[in-house]
Amino acid sequence: MTLPVLQSTVGLFDGPGAAFVFLLARVLFGGVLAFMGLNHFTGGEEMAGYAGVKGVPAPDLLVPLSGGTLVFGGLSVALGVYPLLGSGALAVFLLVTTPVMHDFWAVGEEQRQQETINFLKNAALLGAALVFLVLSGVAWPLSLGVGV
């Protein structure tokens, strides 16, 4: 038995309200990640200290760089501007940072629940970033439509 494979994206957004729901998903996903990126700048000193405790090399450099990645990627997905680059950047960010920053298996019992929650949240966000990455090859409705 073989599973059905999506052969075409024709009509992907033709359902009632599909374009609006896709826009809402993009704005929620991208907006939250862009906001998280802004926090890398407004609370950068504290975040760099935490990243240093987690063993991140050059946290004073990497925290703003990762913040810029989140802002760019989040706005890219929300607006539909360079969605391949934006969703790809978000996927790479989440893939790399999640096990480093939320290593629930390596922390004490008092931190384990919070780190587990953050790890699982980031895993779900990674899944969403991968969906947007796959869909970046088709025209997004209600977007600025700029891409590579």
UniProtKB/TrEMBL annotation:
<keyword id="KW-1133">Transmembrane helix</keyword>
<protein>
    <submittedName>
        <fullName>DoxX family protein</fullName>
    </submittedName>
</protein>
<feature type="transmembrane region" description="Helical">
    <location>
        <begin position="20"/>
        <end position="41"/>
    </location>
</feature>
<dbReference type="InterPro" id="IPR032808">
    <property type="entry name" value="DoxX"/>
</dbReference>
<dbReference type="GO" id="GO:0016020">
    <property type="term" value="C:membrane"/>
</dbReference>
<feature type="transmembrane region" description="Helical">
    <location>
        <begin position="119"/>
        <end position="142"/>
    </location>
</feature>
<keyword id="KW-0812">Transmembrane</keyword>
<keyword id="KW-0472">Membrane</keyword>
<dbReference type="Pfam" id="PF07681">
    <property type="entry name" value="DoxX"/>
</dbReference>
